[in-house]
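Consider the tokenized backbone below.
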């Protein structure tokens, strides 16, 4: 007796919490943005690098990125049973590469765009997998490297069409000097900087409370205090209150505040030289600001730190940030290797660009669809499609089942492809093809009420000589792009 076939169990289509699919239109927008950024980085001479998504767990856990980062690592194992983790940023893998590949010339200047993973609680706009785009210089102590990162941040935002932005920078060295000035123990540095990093979100009053006794937040949770004395917090507040219209004025106020503090002049001179270089390169105070409130969250920063905000979209917070991390490679090599870099949160910046209407995205990669009206002419349609492709014009042949022109044009319209190419036996005999500018039809469709009037007008439709096809298509597309 034949066995009954077991019914195949359906698997529910789903993705894990905090993860998502990126549909074609989203991905095309990301690719456009990434291409603009890559052009800037390569113009600066940075080299591309790719590293594995998975690192040994001890490489990630010992990174000095702080306890919060360690708690967020996704742990996995390989067939050999070794403990591994998904990278939570691109900087720690870079440090491992520099230590492992000793033949790399220094300074080594690289960029990388790749996904990273963090076990954050999923929320609106917050995902467990997201993409970062980094640029870093490893192996140079010169403040020119820091200046290049800051200039690169400005040039990147300009290349993306952002006219109003502010890149802010300060220094962990200045914060260390603040500890001396405020008579705060170095052992409390990590907690103090962690709290100062909340200044933009929490506000000064809550920061002052957390630096002293702590407080109870709106949800009823207790925020533990650091335990500083009132006089120490007053010293911190004097430092944070330094504000001026120019970087030069901020430096002058710093010298006044830290007069007589050991090591202060060295740290002030670093941010002053960076400012001087930026002035020389044409980056004014309206673009780059010396802002002493910046602390940055990760514990591995050792020198200048920086971040960028969009003036017309401040709700997105920092879209580009980084700093100097001279100690990160030391744990692999046992020697100090200076490094500085910055990272873009691709998803956050893209959301901000969309909000500002700066994204140049298409629904499709094709610029022309070759319709199929007569199956006996299939080879003609294929020949035209490949002629356009070989001329560098993205094109596709309609692969649907409908033989009706209207249905095929609906497909072209759905994906917002600019041109449709129509060829029948009559056109072939006369040595012409018909090109239909779909954008013209979209723009005036609301002005034509009757179908008969539409057919008589044939908006955006023209016949061109078969031999002039490629040049005509290229000219039409240039015109269409110029109107966008």
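A designed sequence for it:
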């Amino acid at each position: 007796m034949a066995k009954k076939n077991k019914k195949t169990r359906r698997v529910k289509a789903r993705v894990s919490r905090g993860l998502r699919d990126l549909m074609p239109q989203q991905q095309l927008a990301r690719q456009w943005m990434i291409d603009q950024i890559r052009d800037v980085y390569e113009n600066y001479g940075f080299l591309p690098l790719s590293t594995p998504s998975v690192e040994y767990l001890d490489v990630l856990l010992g990174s000095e990125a702080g306890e919060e980062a360690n708690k967020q690592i996704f742990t996995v194992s390989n067939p050999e049973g070794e403990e591994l983790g998904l990278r939570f940023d691109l900087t720690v893998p870079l440090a491992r590469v520099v230590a492992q590949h000793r033949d790399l010339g220094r300074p080594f200047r690289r960029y990388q765009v790749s996904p990273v993973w963090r076990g954050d609680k999923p929320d609106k706009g917050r995902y467990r997998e997201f993409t970062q785009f980094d640029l870093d210089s490893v192996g140079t102590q010169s403040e020119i490297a820091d200046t290049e990162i800051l200039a690169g941040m400005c040039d990147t935002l300009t290349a993306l069409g952002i006219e109003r932005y502010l890149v802010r920078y300060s220094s962990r060295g200045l914060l260390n000097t603040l500890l001396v000035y405020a008579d705060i123990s170095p052992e409390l540095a990590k907690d103090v900087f962690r709290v100062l990093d909340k200044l933009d979100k929490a506000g000064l009053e809550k920061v002052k409370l957390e630096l002293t006794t702590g407080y109870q937040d709106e949800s009823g949770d207790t925020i533990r205090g650091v335990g500083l004395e009132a006089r120490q917090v007053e010293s911190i507040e004097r430092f944070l209150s330094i504000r001026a219209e120019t970087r030069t004025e901020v430096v002058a106020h710093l010298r006044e505040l830290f007069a007589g503090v050991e090591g202060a002049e060295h740290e002030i001179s670093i941010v002053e030289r960076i400012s001087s270089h930026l002035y020389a390169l044409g980056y004014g105070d309206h673009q780059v600001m010396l802002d002493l409130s910046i602390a940055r969250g990760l514990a591995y920063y050792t020198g200048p730190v920086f971040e960028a905000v969009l003036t017309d979209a401040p709700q997105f917070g920092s879209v580009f940030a980084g700093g100097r991390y001279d100690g990160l490679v030391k744990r692999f090599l046992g020697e100090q290797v200076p490094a500085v870099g910055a990272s873009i949160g691709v998803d956050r910046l893209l959301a901000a660009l969309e909000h500002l209407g700066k994204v140049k995205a298409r629904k499709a990669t094709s610029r022309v669809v070759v319709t199929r009206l007569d199956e006996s002419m299939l080879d003609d349609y294929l020949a035209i499609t490949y002629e356009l492709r070989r001329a560098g014009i993205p094109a596709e042949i309609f692969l649907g089942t409908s033989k009706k022109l209207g249905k095929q044009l609906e497909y072209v319209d759905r994906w917002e492809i600019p041109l449709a190419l129509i060829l029948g036996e009559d056109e072939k005999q006369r040595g012409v093809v018909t090109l239909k500018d779909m954008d013209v039809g979209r723009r005036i469709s609301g002005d034509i009420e009757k179908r008969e009037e539409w057919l008589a007008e044939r908006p955006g439709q023209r016949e061109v000589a078969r031999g002039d096809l490629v040049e005509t298509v290229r000219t039409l597309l240039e015109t269409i792009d110029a109107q966008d």
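The chain has two domains: 24-184+228-355, 368-483.
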